[in-house]
């Protein structure tokens, strides 16, 4: 049952759990501390949350003030965010991976008065720019030993450790108890809860204004769509809470339901943490799921023999069983027996590594290759795909638990309208809602535009950009290209990514790139061809496979030249390029390519924090190399 009722703000979610779902002695958060997994009760969390609120009130923070969170996922994020939220303060979460210049811009654009940081690396970043941020009055490190980084600096903002914030706040809680209640009750649904700065593939970051109404109604709609989650679930959180996907789909969903949140130690320890924590739900990005898929297949088949044969047989039986069930038919006794045997011999071993309790995973933040989704479905690990943007709070569509169409992002959420608009004529082909769902509906392709309770209030300090994004009829223009397929929304590309070749032919790069990414030899691919006669690409090879095949050392990938010119390696990649090109139209085929030694990265500015390629940045950095592709291609 959906626990959210009308007009609940973000801080109301936690209070509702304590009043109607769990006693305060129940576990709320799980964190790896002191070399063990510690369980933190609602009571202890609430003590720290109220302590944060009391401290913030004592230094003059008021409703509408902004505070920046430069934190990796942890209980401290929850304490600070909830302490801020119940005062009507505005959370300005900053990606830990952003460069100093972007971080400084966000602090100044938002006018953040306080910033909290939880690692020495992030603390040093803030210390370098703090005096360029006149609105800052407090810098709050959450770790011990922070003094050695700041003791010899002259800072206009005070540095106060989080331990002292909590300690002083606890002593002030009784004094400010009535003020906290009054502030919480005074929050309106239309008040801002957060500013989330979109990384964007071009231009300066824009602060997306999301209200309490945006966030809680989005969570409520998600729970209506996926009613199989409940108060007894455990979510493992590892995607950054600075991104709206993780904040909604894990943090706010758990706040609403009373489900537990376990914080992973790191992405490197994720496999171990899954085994230890035994989560029931995980939110993931497609790249992680692709890596799990690739590793599972490699481990099972690389040495051949009986093990590989059993694995391939099991996958085939899993697929046959899944397709029967999804078509609404009952598998026969022979197929059922074979599926049970495949489960015992193969699937259960893979599931055991995830902790053995997963109900499902949610994939968001990008397109999940259809074959990867089907692989997980074949082994009995359900992956639900979702779609949305920061500007839409974020979820506008997600797969229904009992009705899956692979390669789509599912059914529209309740309370939201999605239209497909012709790119050239601006004519709307169709408008669909949750209620109008038709499993036989397939439409033309166009730009996806959205209207409903999920749409942001606008961009902070940018009225013109807001006007350009939301038209006079209230439609938010996503810039994404898609259509409806079997009643579900299907994303095909980004409007800004569209390549128009020299002959005026439109090429959507994502489907083409996904075709070439079927090769195990290719890790990343970046398609080029705007205003050119044909397509070329920058290709990043699968380093592990490349090292194994050619007996290379790690130092090979650290050489100064960013590209690989070894003929044997080029021929090795080209074998798969030629084979996969047969699946594409002639104008979609790569005529020439360069092999890049290192992956595109956030640190070099080539990727956004959500791992989307910055097309203009990459084309500028490698302009000379790209020109060479058109000089040498036949």
From TrEMBL:
Residues 25-460 form the AMP-dependent synthetase/ligase domain. One of its GO terms (molecular function) is long-chain fatty acid-CoA ligase activity. The keyword Ribosomal protein does not apply. InterPro entries: AMP-binding_CS, AMP-dep_synth/lig_dom, ANL_N_sf. The keyword Manganese does not apply. One of its GO terms (cellular component) is membrane. This is Long-chain acyl-CoA synthetase. It comes from the Bacteria.
